[in-house]
Amino acid sequence: KKDIIILGIESSCDDTSAAILKNETVLSNEIAGQKVHEAYGGVVPELASRAHQQNILPVVDTAIKNAKIKLKDIDAIAFTRGPGLLGSLIVGTSFAKSMALGLDIPMVEVNHMHGHVLAHFIDDQQKEKPQFPFICLTVSGGHTQIVLVKDYLDMEVIGTTKDDAAGEAFDKSAKLMGLPYPGGPLIDKYAQDGNPNAYQFTTPKMPDFDYSFSGLKTNFLQFLQRETKKDVDFIKNNLNDICASLQHTIINILFDKLIKAVELHNINQVAIAGGVSANAGLRNRLEEEGEKRNWKTFIPKFEYCTDNAAMIAIAGRYQFLQGNFAQQDISPNARLKF
Ligand code: KG4
Ligand code: ZN
């Protein structure tokens, strides 16, 4: 059987990415981040779409060059149709449509959240890939989901957040401490030298497998206000302990529901995905729980945790194999359902 080469394009938020996938192997995965949002404490949608517009051609061009393939080798183009920022999605979708038209090759649409989950099937990671069914905790800047993955394109969200996503809990708390956007990786860094039991924060009471992070944010704000009234340098002097304790609380909240979901579904394979799965504390916790509970655990390679086009290309590969092609009249959908 012939090799299948897919060009993946991702532009749902603030990273412009293009990847070339040959079967399940990544030949290239280029990512252009956007520094312009740092000063604003979050992604500014209008600036994001303008930056995508500037980045997309060079990023796609570099991905093709670095993969050492020719344009005519590409069998299909996979693009993120949603969910995400509409202005950002329009850039990737329009680019994919024009290129598919120009090359006269098919396109496949990808749900960004499927991409995060299916990143586990990219070669060159853990030796074994998950077997169906497995449970995936998908934690990113926009989503927090416990997903029951029954097949490549058959997934069910069994738990989700009712307000902030886990990544937002990290980023908004970081902002309250005066750290730049995105604060998640910084909290991770400081937490490594801190005491996770130094401070206690509230944990939500939510039904079933659902999450809520807005209460923690309020609690954290009040905590900082109370302590800085007593000592103006409280944050600076205790940054490591504050970060470690906050991160510990977020991870506890995530695992409380994850463990319940895994036990109820009687599944012993558990994966994590999405930007927050790059967090060292979360990765360690999954391994610890896995040993304790006899789970097989799956942690994506670092570069496939945060937004990237390799995950879009692999998800697109399974659409392609099913013959699920997108037509030229397709438009992006910011609130694309799972
Ligand atoms: O998946 P992603 O790149 O984009 C979305 O689809 O949202 O996730 C970005 C999120 C941000 O909130 C960022 O702060 C968080 O992932 N993140 C982390 C870490 N690396 C990225 N959060 C905690 N620890 C990290 N090491
Ligand atoms: Zn994402």
UniProtKB/TrEMBL annotation:
Pfam families: TsaD. Binds 1 Fe(2+) ion per subunit. SUPFAM superfamilies: Actin-like ATPase domain. The keyword Transferase applies. Its main location: cytoplasm. Its EC number is 2.3.1.234. Belongs to the KAE1 / TsaD family. This is tRNA N6-adenosine threonylcarbamoyltransferase. The gene is tsaD.
